[in-house]
Amino acid sequence: QVQLVESGGGLAQPGGPLRLSCAASGSILGIYAMGWNRQAPGKQRELVAGITSGGTTNYADSVKGRFTISRDIAKNTVYLQMSSLKPEDTAVYYCNADLKALTTGRVIRELYWGQGTQVTVSS
Fold it and tell me: In Å, how far from its chain's centre is CA 24?
């Protein structure tokens, strides 16, 4: 059973930093990519940032220059360093991972999601 567990959310001041972490665990055989999406109240879930197994990154235009995604391959963990936070960054942040795992005796590639962590930017 693959699990993604996020941590690091909470309340942040406008202009301040916050760091999110997401650790993947289970019978993981390989990770192709990991990323972060977010969903604000009344809005659709949107891509924030992603990183491939080769280290290629991509960002939403709204967070470029403020957010940095990174990963620790050995720990199957992805991070999102957020800085210069704005009230409009307030959302539930979801981690995801495109990976292959041993599931009921078979190797299956699937996109997994974490349960989400709340980020609130407010003074």
Answer: 11
